[in-house]
Each structure stands twice: as structure tokens, then as C-alpha cells.
# Entry
Amino acid sequence: MEEEIIRITINEMLEEIKPTDVDNFEGLCYFCSNNLMYDLLQQEIKADMLNIRDYTGVDYDHYFLIAGDNEYLIDLTYSQFLPNGGEVRFFEDFPASVLSSSEDGKDILNHLLSDYYIKLTDDSLKLYLNSFKPAAKRR
# Structure
């Protein structure tokens, strides 16, 4: 039941955003995560917004949610980290490329890109956060 509410709430929110012709969600992670968090809380589903900066050592803000009884990791804007010829300056490599380097990571990436959430386990959280490898400091 909880997962179904999360799925429906995500889809409703994305329907509101998609008509604005947003192809790249870069810079929208805070907006999306914050709004989704409040939508879930209104439906009495626990949701906490977190920033990768606090867990990875990367000098970059990217927000995602942990929802339910710590059962789901939701990232509505992970698609911005696909290797699309853009700049990687904050990361060692595109986070999606890092994720896709293992079978479990590919599974996580596929779910983030199609469903926008994954079942949260210690391993899935570790793979997700480790995809944001900080770039070497420039001297």
C-alpha cells in the first residue's frame, strides 16, 4: 500500500513538471524533493530530504528522499547524471556511469530512471552514494 502511494504521488508530481518542457532536471532536485516530501507527509508517509554533500565528501548539492519506514530511496532527478557530454567537474566520473559498472548498480540505475525510486537496503544506499565520487582537488 505504501509503495503504491509513493508511486502514484511521484507520477502526479512529474505530470505537473513535465508539461513545462523540462528535459534536464539539473538544478531541480531541491524543488522536486522538497515538494514530494511534503506531498508524502500530507499522506502520512514519513519522508526525509537528504543532501549527498553530507554523505559523500563531494562539493556539490544534490537532494534525494528516504521515504516510508526507511524502505525507499527516491531521486526524481538522477537522470541529470547520465553521461551526455556534459561537464563532470564535481565528480570523478558521471554518477550513472559509476552505478552501471556493477550488476547491482545497473539494477539501481534502471529503477531510478524508470521508477524514480529504489528499495532501500544497506547495499543499495552504499552503491547510490558511492556513485557520487568526488573529483580530485585541483591545485
